[in-house]
Amino acid sequence: DAARKKLEGAGLKYNELKAAFDDYKNNYALQVDLVKARNEQIAGLEEKLRTIEVTTITEEEKKMDPDGAYAGFSRV
């Protein structure tokens, strides 16, 4: 009878551990999907950044070139 109770206890513990592991797998899969989506978003923003031409002139640049002689030059 004691062995049966131990076996039932082990079965309950196994079920608890299996449920916890299933939760872990689901959370891990969700995290993988979120990281993948974030990496795609970052790649899209990096591509957008590469294609945008920066035309903002800072105050320091205005002081260095007050008449705008170099305004048309590329910053690259």
TL;DR?
The protein has about 80 residues and is mainly alpha-helical. Helices cover about 75% and strands about 0% of the residues.
Labels describing this entry:
76 residues; 74% helix; rod-shaped; mainly alpha
Describe the overall structure:
The protein has one domain. The model has no long low-confidence stretch (mean pLDDT 84). It is 74% helix and 0% strand. It starts with a helix and ends in a 12-residue tail after the last helix. The chain is mainly α and 76 residues long.
Helix content: over 70%
Query: What would you call the structural class?
Result: mainly alpha
Beta-strand percentage range: under 5%
**Total beta strand runs:** 0
Number of helices: 2
Return the average pLDDT rounded to an integer: 84
Low-confidence stretches: none
N/C terminus separation: 82 Å
Instruction: Write down the domain tally.
Output: 1
Structural topology:
Elements: H1 2-51, H2 59-64
